[in-house]
Design goal:
lipid metabolism, EC 3.1.1.47, alpha/beta, 1-alkyl-2-acetylglycerophosphocholine esterase activity, 12 helices, seven-stranded mixed β-sheet, globular, 1-alkyl-2-acetylglycerophosphocholine esterase, single chain, 9 strands, Rossmann fold, two-stranded antiparallel ribbon
Length: 301
């Protein structure tokens, strides 16, 4: 996490009882060797575009996305300036978020996010931009199929992007309420909904409205003991800092009660199983094997 962003997160989450310097103390190990880079050029890699929650930095999903990437995907995580609470550019430029609270603000944020997703997908085929986007040795013509995954407002953006962009082979909405024309227009691409405990078609009208308009493969899952921000790295951060069960009750309302490493693995396994099915010709039956590992996940529809 860039330094200014880490400092901002320390201040933001300090209000919930996190010790000062928590985010500045964390790091994410990566391993990219010359041999691995050369290997990238020998085969095509499916692309996963990711959009996070409103007022949330993309860096709060780094561990989850790293796990997805390790399964053989090129993951492009998108920060949305003025929507994310802070975006820190490589040259040190910082853009802080604006207040987004009215229906009109949310609609604008959604349409902007979808435009961001489409822009990033187009840059894959932009020769000059692809040099910055891709690892050394990965040629843009080796990029194959694309899917989109989003959390919260990012999940809503994933649904609308699926409607607007035929190039997307599949989409995942992690715990996001949806709105806009997609609810009644729908689309025919594969789509998976994954919600926290008690977030289903029965409790979220947008999920119920969209469901009959999803005319392709679809699946809805509910995760018992999960909460809205369970679908981020925050539960893993709490575990890494030794803070499980030591923070105020309202933190549990945001993060749920599933241990951080398990929750990260749970989300990763289900998302990768979906991506394997839609982008790598994997079998739908793999969901049953994943389900055996995670009894807290139930298939709603």
């Amino acid at each position: 996490m860039p330094p200014a962003t880490a400092n901002f997160m320390d201040t933001k989450f300090g209000a919930y009882g996190l010790p000062n310097g928590s985010f500045q103390s964390l790091g994410l190990e990566t391993c990219v060797t010359p041999a691995r880079q050369d290997a990238c050029s020998s085969h095509s890699l499916p692309v996963v575009l990711f959009s996070g929650a409103l007022a949330t930095s993309r860096h709060l999903y780094n561990a989850m996305l790293q796990n997805i990437a390790s399964s053989g995907y090129l993951v492009l995580s998108i920060d949305h300036p003025y929507d994310a609470d802070m975006v820190e550019f490589p040259d040190g430029t910082i853009v802080t978020g604006v207040e987004i609270d009215s229906d009109a603000d949310i609609e604008l944020a959604l349409s902007t996010r979808v435009a961001d997703i489409e822009f990033v997908s187009n840059q894959i085929y932009n020769v000059s931009a692809s040099k910055d986007l891709f690892p050394t040795g990965l040629r843009r013509e080796r990029v194959s199929k694309m899917a989109v995954v989003g959390h919260s407002l990012g999940g809503a953006a994933a649904a609308t992007a699926m409607m607007n962009m035929p190039s997307l082979r599949g989409g995942v909405n992690l715990d996001g309420s949806m709105f806009g024309s997609v609810l009644t227009t729908g689309f025919d691409g594969p789509f998976m909904l994954m919600g926290h405990e008690n977030k289903t078609q029965e409790t979220d009208p947008s999920w119920k409205t969209l469901w009959p308009h999803l005319v392709g493969w679809k699946k809805e899952l509910e995760v018992k003991n999960a909460a809205h921000y369970s679908f981020s790295d925050l539960p893993l951060v709490m575990t890494a800092l030794g803070l499980d069960g030591k923070l105020p009750a309202e933190v549990g309302e945001l993060l749920g009660n599933i241990e951080g490493r398990r929750m990260t693995t749970l989300v990763t396994e289900y998302v990768v199983t979906f991506l394997d099915m839609t982008l790598k010709k994997g079998k739908e039956g793999a969901f049953s094997k994943v389900g055996d590992q995670f009894p807290e996940v139930s298939e709603v529809a």
